[in-house]
Amino acid sequence: MSQRAPNGTPSPLVGEGELSFPAGRRVVASRSFEPMARPSPPAFQRPLPTSREAARGTFRRSRVQGPRPGLVRRLAFATLCFAFASPGAAQSAREAIVTNQNSSTLSILDLESQKPAAELKVEGKPAGVALSPDRTRAYLSAPDAREVVVVDLARRAVVKRVKAGDGPLGIAVNPVTGVVYAADWYSHRLIVIDPDKLEAVAEIETGKSPSGLAVTTDGGTILSADRDSDQVSVFDAKSYERRAVIPVGTRPFGVTIDAANARAYTANVGSDDVSVIDLTALKVTGTVKVEHHPYAVALAAGRGFVTNQSSSTVTVFETASLDVLKTIEVGDTPEGIEADPTERWVYVACWFENALERIDTRTLAVVGTIKTGDGPRAFGKFLR
User: Helix (H, G, I), strand (E, B), or coil: what is residue 352?
Assistant: First the structure.
C-alpha cells in the first residue's frame, strides 16, 4: 500500500515508485521524502489519530484605574462597541469551516463557545476549503471524487458538486468576482469555476502538481504553489496569462499573500523553510528557516505563523525582520492555519489530533481546542 507525503499528496516515503490513486488513476512520483519514524498521514486513507480532551480558552479582563472607574469602564465599553459596529472595523470570525478528510465530513465550529455546531457528510475525502466573498458558501476540494463541492452555509447543506479535473486539492476564491479556482494536482492546471453557473469554464496551465492557491485582495492576481516544480506561478486573473514564474524553496505547498498585496509566503515542505516573495519585483527576497515539513502560513499582528506538520509545532516569525520569535507546541500533525480578521487569534487544524486549536497572538500560547471530525485538513480560508 502506498504512503502519503507530509503535504497530503501521493508520494512514497523512500525512493521513486508507482502509486495508486483511490479512484483508479496511477501516477509516478518524481521525488521522495526522507524516511520518517512513523508513516506520514495518508491523505485519502484513514490514519490512527491520537486524541486530546478539549480545553476551553479564557479571556481575562484588565482592571481600569482612575478616579471614576465606573464611568471609565462605561466609556471604554461604548467606544469598543462603536468600533465593532463601524463598517471599517474588523469583525471576529464566528465559525470555522473545517474539512475532515478521513471521515469525509465537514465540521462547522462555533468559535465563541468553542464547540461543534454542525457536521455534514461530504463524500470524496474533502481537503481544501474556500469561502465566497459574502461568506454564505463554502467551496471544498474533494480529491477522491475529482470534484469541487459547494455548501450552502445557512442551510448547512451540499447544493452542488462540480467536476474539477483529476484531483483537485488547493482551492481559492477571487474576493472581488467570486470566481473559484481549484488546483488540479495530477493534470498540472487550475480549474476555473463560474460562481453563478457552478460549472468549470476555463483551465490554466501551471507547473507540476499545483497545491496551495492565493488571490490578491484586489482580485487581480492569482498565485499557485507548484510543488513538484519548486516554483510559484503568477497569473493575471482576467486574461489568465502567466506573468511570472518564481523559483522558491523545495516543494512549496501552502501560499499566503499579505493584506497589502506586497508579499507572499510559501511553506516549503522539502527544504523546511518559508520563501518570502516581493510581489512587485516578483522574486524571493528572504527565507525563514522553520521546523520539519512546513504546510501553510498565516499572518497576524506583524508576524507569520507556520504549521510544521512532522514536528507538531507552529513557528512564529517577525514579518519585518524575518527573525524567528518562538516555536509553539500544538496538536499532532498541524496543517491548515488561518488568522482571525481581528488578528487576535490564529486557528490551526491538527490532523492526527482531530481538533482545531486557537493560538493567542499576544501570548503566543494555545488557549483553546475544539473537537472536529476525523482527519481535519482545513487547507485554505476557513474562517467566517
Answer: helix
State the amino acid at position 259 in one-letter form: A
Query: What pLDDT score does 88 carry?
Result: 60
Taking the chain (384 residues) in runs of 10, the rounded mean pLDDT of each run is 40 28 33 31 34 33 34 38 51 97 98 97 98 98 98 98 97 98 97 98 98 98 98 98 98 98 98 98 98 98 98 98 98 98 98 98 98 98 98
CA distances for 92 relative to 114, 348, 367, angstroms: 13, 16, 16
Distance of alpha carbon 308 from alpha carbon 296, whole angstroms? 8
Backbone angles phi, psi at 88, to 5 degrees: -85, -10
Tell me what pLDDT residue 94 has: 98
CB 330 within 8 A of CB 347: no
Place of cell 482545513: 378
The number of helices, as runs of H, and strands, as runs of E, in the chain is 1, 30
246: left (phi over 0), alpha (psi -120 to 50) or beta: beta
Q: In 10 A of CB 19, how many CB atoms?
A: 18
The residue type found at 122 is V
* pTM across the whole model: 0.80
pLDDT at 301: 97
In sequence order, which residues have a C-beta less than 8 Å from that of residue 169 and are 6 or more positions away?
Answer: 8, 9, 127, 128, 141, 143, 182, 183, 184, 185, 210, 211, 379
Q: Is 128 helix (H, G, I), strand (E, B) or coil?
A: strand
Q: Which domains are delineated in the chain?
A: 91-380 (2.130.10.10)
196 sits in the region (left: phi over 0; alpha: psi -120 to 50; else beta) called alpha
Task: Name, in order, each residue with C-beta under 8 angstroms of 243's C-beta and a sequence gap of 6 or more.
Answer: 221, 234, 235, 236, 282
Give the model's pLDDT for residue 27: 34
| pLDDT recorded at residue 71 | 38
CA 175 – CA 132 distance, rounded (Å): 7
